[in-house]
Fold:
Amino acid sequence: MTEHEKNLLQSVVNHLKTMTERSGVYRFDDEVAPEDNEFSCLYRGPNGSKCAAGFLIKDEYYHEGMEGSSVVYGKQVRDAIILSQGLNPEDHEWSWESDSNFFRALGVLQEAHDDEESWVDGAFQPRLDYKQRVKEVYPDIQW
Structure:
C-alpha cells in the first residue's frame, strides 16, 4: 500500500472519529411499525454529512445514482473516488478490475460506518473485528 493510500485511509478514520452519527436517513414506511423502519446510509446525508467513502468523493464527482452501491462493488463509486484524487480510472491501479487492498480496507470502513453497533453514545467506536480487518492491509492505522 502506498503512502498516499495510507494517508487517505487515515483521513477517513479521522473523519469518522469526528462524526456523532451515521450519514443517512430513516426510510419511513407506513406499512411497518415506526421502530421497524430501516436506516439507509448515504454517501451524502442530511446537513452535509458524508460516510466513510463519501468523505473521499469531491462534490463535482458525486451523484445520487451512487447511493445504494458499496465501494467494493460499485464502479461509479470507485471511479468517483479515483477522479477525486486527480487520477484517471481507466489508467489507475485502483481500476474496477483490480483487487485493491485500498478499496478492501475502505470497504471495511464503510461497513463499520453503516453498522449501528459502531455508534456508541454519539461516537464512532467500531468493533474489534473491523479494526483487525483494516489492520490486515494497513497495520499502522491509528484508531
